[in-house]
Amino acid sequence: MRFVRDPDEAEEVVQDTFVRIWQKREQISINHSLKSYLFQSVRNSCLNTLKHQVVVREYESDQQMYALREDMVDSVVTDELESKIKATIGLLPPERKKIFLMSRDEGLRYAEIAEKLNISVKTVENQIGRALKFLREELADFLVVLWIIYITNTGGWG
């Protein structure tokens, strides 16, 4: 208890020590008192347990920092992407922008947009197709750069 300060952990250490001694009983040669040998064995096991706990805490801390960093990178990438998409949508001609936003933001179907704007469904399809093509072209380089930044900051492909 003096070493690990947790009754359950102390019991676990003592039990593991006795199991280990029993498993290696054929190889163990005790040249001094059994009491001293057992005490020293338990003490060493406690120290090993404490070292292991430090390693576990450091690992958990590293994992939390990694997750936080990854979340921050994801957030920055997402914010940048949203900002760039909004700016690029703003470059669309007014009618195309209106049709595109009715489809994407309001969730209207092509027929509903056509009815509201008194235009043909084919015109709506055409305008949305042109808007998507424009967005793909305008955002292509930006997405490649964001992908490279993301991969670099997260340390790999996945």
Task: Name the descriptors.
2 domains; 80% helix
Question: What does it look like?
Answer:
- With about 160 residues, the protein is an all-alpha fold.
- The protein folds into two domains: about 1-20 and about 40-70; about 90-158, Arc Repressor Mutant, subunit A (Orthogonal Bundle).
- It is built from five helices and no strands.
- The protein has helices at about 5-25, 35-90, 95-105, 110-115, 120-155.
- α1 (about 5-25) crosses α2 (about 35-90) and α3 (about 95-105) crosses α5.
- It is rod-shaped.
Instruction: Please give the domain count.
Output: 2
Give the overall shape, derived from the CA principal axes: rod-shaped
Mean pLDDT, all residues: 87
> Please, how many helices?
5
Rg to the nearest angstrom? 33 Å
The residue fraction in helices comes out at over 70%
- Structural class, by secondary structure, is mainly alpha
- Counting DSSP E segments of at least 2 residues, the number of strands comes to 0
Describe the largest sheet.
none
How are the SSEs placed, and which strands pair?
Elements: H1 7-23, H2 34-90, H3 94-104, H4 110-117, H5 121-154
Helix pairs in contact: 1-2, 2-5, 3-5, 4-5
In short:
The protein has 158 residues and is mainly α. It folds into two domains: 52 residues; 68 residues, Orthogonal Bundle (Arc Repressor Mutant, subunit A), CATH 1.10.10.
